[in-house]
Amino acid sequence: MHRLRALGPRRIVALAGCLLLLAPPLYLSSFWLQTGLFAMVAVIAAIGLNLLVGTAGQLSLGHAFFLAVGAYGYTWLADDPHRSGTTELSGLGLPPLLAFVAAVLLAGVAGAAFSPLSGRLRGMYLGVATLALIFFGHHAMLNAESYTGGFNGRTVPDMEILGLSLGDADDGLAVLGVPFGGLERLWYFGLVLVAVAALAARNLLKGRPGRALGALRDSEVAAAVMGVPAARYRAAAFTVSSMYAGAAGALLALAAQRVVPDYFSLLLSMDMLAMIVIGGLGSVAGAAVGAVFVSVLPQLLSHYSDALPLVVSAGSSEPGLGSADAARFLYGAALVLTLVFAPGGLVSLRGGRAARVLRGLPRPRRPAPTALSTFPQPSAGATTGGDTLKEHTP
User: Fold this and answer.
1) Is residue 154 helix, strand or coil?
2) Least confident of 62-66, 293-297, 311-315
3) What separation in angstroms does the CA of 322 have from each of 308, 318, 348, 373?
4) Greatest pairwise CA separation for the chain in angstroms
5) What are 155's strand-pairing partners?
6) Residue 52's beta-bridge partner residues?
């Protein structure tokens, strides 16, 4: 008890949250597990982009390109040469864990190759330059068929660590009576990656590189007076951000089990920018909060489209908004509201900040009292979306 008090309330809450994240594979269905894995992908990618945009003050519209490098890099490095339909696919057949690390490094090399531009261009000029990476990457993914599989993409080899497969292996693995398939095993691998990414970014921000990048963002002249080489630090920030995107892309490939070029479009880069702005620029926690909000919202709207007004499922002929379009409207509105009422992002609403923002809103006029209310009282009802508790094996 005394040790818990010594930790402090914030650390206790963080520890309880970490322990809570270990439980979903024991209770939730495959839909929720895959949604959580996609959220982990978004968190890792958003943390990397936030280091570049929020800390270094640089704009990148090509983040999706480096996710593609990580996804296809892992697939090509870990897969064996084989034939898929009429296409001969190449591969190196490396051990999956080594292929994952190599894919992250490959994304970093791609970012370093862009450093002559990323170290010298600023703001919108860098954004336009990185925009070209999206179109170049899409063209390469469609035409380098022996590496990418072309338009149809290619399947992703399962991750394997110390002989334990993180795919749907028929080895009878069960925890507390719950059979563990690929998504359950991959969940914990994703948690480890998110923890490593967050801790590395937090240490970088607290160290000398983080202070130097913050000085460059605030004033390049002042940073130069303090002896900060602007071009070198900007190029380094772009390279580190690319490595984060590579790790996120490799995890995305493992979670989706197949990679296709349409995953890595300009819309993905724009979603990443929305994540860090909504969550909070320059904050690791803000990037994580914004990433979860933007990535989970479309999945929830798609899952509950039958129970929501004005939202229809994909491919439906009924009038209404598709789940993807509805999600973009909602987090577009969230983006505008964040910029107006909380420029520091959702993470800035901690403590009494949220109450101060709400107090700044205009108060509605109190209606005159009436004998009977014309509005019906809400009634409690069961939620939709199906059972999420798993059945335990006997």
Assistant:
1) strand
2) 311-315
3) 11, 10, 32, 35
4) 78
5) 258
6) none
Identify each DSSP E strand in the chain by its residue range.
Answer: 82-84, 87-89, 154-155, 160-161, 164-165, 174-175, 178-179, 258-259, 311-312, 321-322
Write the CB contacts of 383 (distance below 8 Å, at least 6 apart in sequence).
none
pLDDT single digits (tens) 84-126: 878 889 999 999 999 999 999 999 999 999 988 888 888 888 8
pTM for this model (two decimals): 0.86
Q: Are strands 258-259 and 178-179 parallel, antiparallel or unpaired?
A: unpaired
Beta carbons of 293 and 276 less than 8 angstroms apart: no
Query: What b-and-e string marks burial along 224-255, b requiring 16 or more CB atoms within 10 Å of the CB?
Result: eeeebebeebbbbbbbbbbbbbbbbbbbbbbb
Indicate the pairing of strand 321-322 with strand 311-312.
parallel
DSSP state for residue 120 in the 8-state scheme: T
How long, in residues, is the chain? 394
Please report the DSSP string for 344-391 in residue order: T-GGGGTTTHHHHHHHTSPPPPPPPP-SS-SSPPP---PPPS---PPP
Of 130, 16, 155, 2, residue with least CA distance to 72: 155
Read off the pLDDT of residues 246-257 as tens digits, 9 standing for 90 and up: 999 999 999 999
- pLDDT tens, 191-225? 999 999 999 999 999 988 888 888 888 888 888 88
